[in-house]
Design a protein that fits this description.
Layout (H helix, E strand, L loop, with lengths): L15 H11 L4 H13 L5 H27 L2 H7 L1 H13 L1 H10 L4 H10 L4 H34 L3 H22 L9
Length: 195
């Protein structure tokens, strides 16, 4: 019986180690798609669920650390510092420091917020130990819940939708990609407060 698993994650082959490598690499491109794909591949028996989840979590957490490091490295760029300005850096640091843990957790759950929040954490030289602990726990909890829900219910839903499942999957990917931009454009900026 031919597998219905997402072909993007099977480009390196169907051996569990190669599928795990594809999942790991996919987390650096589209984390949500990698999560859904890994769970569906595990549900179909292409890869053991424990290997899929472990690989998925490792890729996601390494990506989080890379974003922090990217921000930290950008801080040493004189042009970036001059562009932002000392006053704005201080205000940004103060604002994010007051909401650091909450912002890190929210960034894990809200699409499009990881890059700016995690890179800003590194750029503003906020405590790495806090970043490490909060993102480790948040990534583990979020990834485990998302993987488990999709693993448990995703395959049954995919089978119930029949051939329409790929159209639904493409629609979900499209929503994940453009949804945050549409929401930002619909929101009106509040110019009355600087907080």
């Amino acid at each position: 019986m031919e597998s219905d698993a997402p072909s993007i994650l099977l480009t390196l082959g169907t051996a569990p180690v190669m599928v795990a490598l594809a999942i790991f690499l996919a987390t650096f491109v589209l984390e949500d798609v990698a999560t859904a794909g890994a769970a569906l591949l595990a549900a179909e028996g292409v890869i053991p669920p424990s290997l899929a989840l472990t690989t998925l979590f490792a890729g996601i957490f390494l990506g989080d650390l890379a974003l922090f490091a990217l921000g930290h490295l950008a801080r040493s760029n004189q042009r970036a510092q001059a562009f932002i300005g000392t006053e704005r850096l201080d205000r940004g640091r103060d604002w994010l420091q007051k909401r650091y843990v909450t912002s890190l957790i929210a960034a894990r759950c809200i699409p499009g917020m990881r890059l700016p929040t995690f890179a800003a954490s590194g750029f503003l030289r906020l405590p790495f130990r806090t970043f490490l602990l909060v993102t480790l726990i948040a990534a583990f909890v979020w990834t485990t819940i998302a993987f488990t829900v999709i693993f448990t219910f995703g395959l049954a839903a995919a089978e119930a939708m029949g051939p329409w499942r790929w159209a639904a999957a493409a629609l979900l990917v499209l929503i994940a990609l453009i949804g945050p931009q549409i929401i930002r454009r619909l929101q009106k900026p509040d110019t009355r407060t600087n907080d």
